[in-house]
């Protein structure tokens, strides 16, 4: 089995070969922390957390760096609107970001650099670009000479001639060429600023990541990742800056996740359809949200709607029901399956694990990997349908689910209703039916069904059982 990664730079899947054997240096562009993150921001957090988890699962030591942009135009505008300092706003929403992605089981980055804490390195980076002739100061601003870098456009596969169309110099800019982009901006009155050789100002957005990658990971890294919207111009400009300075490849593999659409429309403030993760994880189990994001391959677009999320919730509950039934059956089961049957299922479990790895080796195909989990659930239910199950076999299925869902980063275990609690709910339902309060009776039935409890109304009274996934 060999891991293959789709490289956005070459537009093809490539066998993954790290720079240093057994180790991976990975940089993921993080959020601009001026507000709560939306579901579109959550997708790269989940997608590349899963990539990290899988790399670790197959034995790599991953150094994972994800930055915070804590100074830019949006933060400055938010500062003016709210009457708070840029740094206070950034600090608050860094905390909110960590809370939201933690709910989605995103592991903390090994390093979370901030632009404001990397200012010396940013300034030095720009100075060296000027020394090499790739950048110039003009009117207190510093710009990158785009045409000087021969490889510009290789990530987005656009030529300089194509990029010229629509390029222009805005009022107040002092560029040599419309295609040049900003490395350092002169501070306007009242704006946050830092001292530099070119006067008081602040960095451009693109230079921040180049400086952070160099500081924490070196000149060339294994994986650079982020949302598809960052490929141009942000990542294109990063490549130009870093490779112009170092004369080395910036990243061997570029990875980009697809967009999220809301009810088949682009998510935007103007349409009023922005969905904040802060709100979403209060409406839905965060495990379900993460599961939903992973039901589509990370490079493909996702359409988001309440109906689709509820469908994902139902599918997730099928897996959860099986898992919790395994735990319950383990407590009451006796080892009475014959050895031949047990050995056959052990082989099935090994095959399921191998299939999961095969799917993940194919550019981290979580959608197909999840389908393996459902096949595992079907096999586990066959075992549980027997009058008696092997405790060893039940434990092996539990371990399989724990192992594979650990890679995907969601949890199936939940508190299982005790028999006495179920009986009490059934009594409440019967009382509601006698008073013709069918709404309450139906809601109790539905609530029990969500917990994997199936009711059967018989002439002798109500019977219940714990459901299996294929029922």
List keywords for this structure.
single chain, 471 residues, alpha/beta, Rossmann fold, 4-stranded parallel beta sheet, 4-stranded antiparallel beta sheet, 15 helices, 15 strands, elongated
Short description:
This protein is an alpha/beta fold. Helices cover 48% and strands 15% of the residues. α6 packs across α7 (231-246), α10 (306-332) packs parallel to α12 (366-385) and α11 (339-361) runs antiparallel to α12.
Which SSEs are present, and which pair or pack?
Layout: E1 4-7, E2 12-15, E3 23-28, H1 39-57, E4 61-66, H2 73-82, H3 86-103, H4 119-131, E5 135-138, E6 141-144, H5 160-164, E7 181-186, E8 201-203, H6 205-217, E9 221-227, H7 231-246, E10 251-257, E11 260-262, E12 265-266, H8 277-283, H9 286-294, E13 302-304, H10 306-332, H11 339-361, H12 366-385, H13 391-408, H14 419-434, H15 438-450, E14 453-458, E15 461-466
Parallel strand pairs: 3-4, 3-9, 9-10, 11-13
Antiparallel strand pairs: 1-2, 5-6, 6-7, 7-8, 11-12, 14-15
Helix pairs in contact: 4-6, 6-7, 9-10, 10-12, 10-13, 11-12, 11-13, 12-13, 14-15
Describe the structure.
Helix 10 (306-332) packs parallel to helix 12. Among the domains are: 4-134 and 206-257, 3-Layer(aba) Sandwich (Rossmann fold); 419-466. It has helices at 39-57, 73-82, 86-103, 119-131, 160-164, 205-217, 231-246, 277-283, 286-294, 306-332, 339-361, 366-385, 391-408, 419-434, 438-450, and strands spanning 4-7, 12-15, 23-28, 61-66, 135-138, 141-144, 181-186, 201-203, 221-227, 251-257, 260-262, 265-266, 302-304, 453-458, 461-466. It starts with a strand and ends in a 5-residue tail after the last strand. Helices cover 48% and strands 15% of the residues. It has 15 helices and 15 strands. The protein is of the alpha/beta class and 471 residues long. The radius of gyration is 27 Å and the shape is elongated. The mean pLDDT is 91. Strands 4-3-9-10 form a four-stranded parallel beta sheet, sandwiched between helices. The protein has a four-stranded antiparallel beta sheet with strand order 5-6-7-8.
């Amino acid at each position: 089995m060999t891991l293959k990664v789709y490289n956005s730079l070459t537009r093809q899947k490539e066998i993954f070969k790290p720079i240093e054997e057994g180790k991976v240096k990975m940089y993921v562009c993080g959020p601009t922390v001026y507000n709560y993150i939306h579901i579109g921001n959550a997708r790269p957090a989940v997608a590349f957390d899963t990539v990290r988890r899988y790399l670790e699962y197959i034995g790599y030591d991953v150094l994972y760096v994800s930055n915070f942009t804590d100074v830019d135009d949006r933060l400055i505008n938010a500062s003016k609107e709210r009457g708070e300092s840029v740094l206070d706003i950034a600090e608050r929403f860094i905390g909110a970001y960590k809370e939201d992605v933690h709910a989605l089981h995103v592991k903390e980055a090994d390093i979370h650099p901030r632009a404001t804490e990397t200012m010396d390195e940013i300034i030095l980076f720009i100075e060296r670009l000027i020394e090499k002739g790739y950048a110039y100061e003009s009117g207190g601003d510093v710009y990158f000479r785009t045409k000087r870098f021969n490889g510009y456009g290789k990530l987005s596969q656009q030529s300089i001639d194509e990029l010229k169309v629509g390029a222009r110099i805005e009022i107040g800019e002092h560029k040599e060429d419309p295609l040049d982009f900003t490395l350092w901006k002169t501070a306007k009155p009242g704006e946050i600023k830092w001292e530099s050789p070119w006067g008081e100002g602040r960095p451009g957005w693109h230079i921040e990541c180049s400086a952070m990658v160099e500081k924490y990971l070196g000149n060339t890294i294994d994986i650079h990742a982020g949302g598809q919207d960052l490929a141009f111009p942000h990542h294109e400009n990063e490549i130009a800056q870093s490779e112009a300075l170092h004369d080395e490849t910036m990243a061997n593999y570029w990875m980009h996740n697809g967009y999220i659409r809301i009810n088949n429309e682009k998510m935007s403030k103007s349409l009023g359809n922005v969905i904040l993760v802060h709100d979403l994880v209060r409406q839905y189990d965060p495990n379900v949200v993460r599961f939903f994001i992973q039901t589509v391959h990370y490079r493909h677009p996702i359409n988001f709607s309440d109906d689709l999320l509820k469908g994902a919730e139902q599918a997730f509950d099928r897996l959860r029901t099986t898992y919790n039934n395994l735990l319950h059956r383990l407590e009451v089961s006796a080892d009475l399956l014959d050895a031949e049957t047990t050995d056959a299922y052990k082989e099935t479990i090994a095959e399921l694990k191998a299939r999961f790895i095969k799917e993940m080796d194919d550019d981290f195909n979580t959608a197909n990997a999840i389908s393996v989990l459902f096949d595992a659930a079907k096999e586990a239910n066959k075992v549980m349908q027997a009058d008696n199950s092997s405790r060893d076999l039940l434990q092996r299925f539990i371990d399989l689910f724990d192992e594979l869902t650990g890679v995907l980063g969601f949890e199936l275990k939940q508190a299982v209703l005790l028999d006495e609690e179920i009986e009490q709910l059934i009594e409440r339902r019967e009382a509601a039916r006698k008073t013709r309060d069918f709404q309450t009776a139906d809601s109790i039935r539905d609530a029990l069904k969500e917990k994997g409890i199936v009711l059967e109304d018989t002439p002798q009274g109500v019977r219940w059982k714990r459901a299996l996934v294929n029922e």
